[in-house]
Amino acid sequence: MGSTLLRGQVSAWDAAVDVIAVINGMLLLVGLWTPVVEVLGAVVEFSSACFWHPHDPWIYILLGALGLSLALFGPGAYSVDARLFGLTRIEIPDRKS
After folding, report:
1. pTM of the entire structure?
2. Domains of the chain: which residue ranges?
3. What is the H or E stretch that residue 44 is in?
4. What is the pLDDT of residues 16-66, one digit of tens each?
């Protein structure tokens, strides 16, 4: 919200993106609903790159890709999601030659 106020122009989209970013950051910090929150954040960033900032989309594409990677990677060991749903481990079996 501060970035739109510093620029002197407040549009509804900029305010909504800032509110989503603050909520996204708070939920990511505690590790609550990590996949859902990061997919929502990636959708917002990709739509910003396509529709609202097409002249310089690369920072939004980077942020969207980081959001998708966090959504696929999942929550950490000390997150609320790990406490609620259990820590998931991926076991890679040995290759049999």
Report:
1. 0.69
2. 2-85
3. helix 34-47
4. 878 888 888 898 888 888 888 889 889 988 888 888 777 888 988 898 899
